[in-house]
Automatic annotation (TrEMBL):
Protein name in the entry: Isochorismate synthase MenF
InterPro entries reported for this sequence: ADC_synthase, Chorismate_C, IsoChor_synthase, MenF, MenF-like
EC class (word): isomerase
Cofactor: Mg(2+)
Short name of any one Pfam family annotated for the protein: Chorismate_bind
Gene: menF
Keyword Hydrolase: no
Amino acid sequence: MHSISTALAGLWHQLADDFPDAPGLHHLDVSFALNDAFDPLAWLNAQQIFPQFYWQQRNGDEEYAALGATKHFSSLSAARHFLQRYPYSPDLRAVGVNAFDPQKGNLFLPRLLWQRHGGTATLRLILCSATSLKNDAQCAREFICSLQESQPVDAVVQPVVSETQRPEKSAWLALVTRATDAIARREFDKVVLARATDLQFSQPVNPAALMAASRRVNFQCYHFFIRFDASNAFLGSSPERLWRRRGTLLRTEALAGTVASHPDDAQAAHLGDWLMHDDKNQRENMLVVEDICQRLQRDGGVLDVLPPQIVRLRKVQHLRRCIWTELQQPDDEQCLMRLQPTAAVAGLPRHIAWEFIARNEPFDREWYAGSAGYLSLAQSEFCVALRSASVQGSCVRLYAGAGIVSGSDPEQEWQEIENKAAGLRSLLLKD
């Protein structure tokens, strides 16, 4: 028997209590040691309840799986305002995604939340009703009865029927030239341009299988997955933190500057050393650092910018500088509005680069380059939604972007987005 089965039995026992026939919010918790090979993503995949959300911190210490919703929120602001009504539950978590436009989101308060910290897991059931907790407890019992046993996730690889790039290569090269010309005219300093690749398959693609495949090979990444309904999902494996807040302590970072990776350690180190000393990539990274610092200085806290690091991933390597500070108030709404979109996914100045993107990119970014994670009154953490894909039935849209600054070469930028898209693309296509 899986550990989650025992935990569900414990929750069922607690649901036998007499709940008031009145509005309110209440949560039931069962904590347990992990003593089996339970995979929360495979467990989510076995369920026919939506929405579903999976998130794993890039160092692997934290992992979440949320199933069903007691409340839906169309923005992080709405989620935060709801949580503030329950100061006696500072660890009450809302989970989900923010769009590239940070005023839009899809977050929810889960009916059931499996969460792991290190080697210990907790299963939380949330009762929330505007009329009767007693009635909602009955709904929760029916919810538990509908759950299915976890099943292995089948492989996702299958032949592609057609492929469309938006924009195609010739249009991309022209677009990068248009951007560098605008930079030369000093209209803006940087813009991040993206490409969407639509892969059409003959059979529906299982988004949980794609997430599982990516999780197996893309290390040092946040893994995020949200399934809105039976046919629509958004997922990815991102190396970039947007922010992590513990109380008033905030950590963010500038992840900008890219070079290819290599399976040979010596070759990868050589490429990483080039990246560390390349003027164009260093300038691109420092533009992001300076922008983040300017936005956070409004809080008046001391900003610590750590020395640059090379982040080596499966297909690419990045230049990263971490930034730490302390907030005057633990306000996740302000964190989102000040940090998203960063210069690493939009450009500088932000509003001018954003307008250039809106005028010139031939697709809507939606959740791409937004963020995925969780928030509570006590803490929050969101990653930037990069190296991502949307799945709609038998169509998979892959996203990849590149930062354009003075001196950017269109052909090199095309190769950069090819390298970035390869992380998920290689998991989908047969040789």
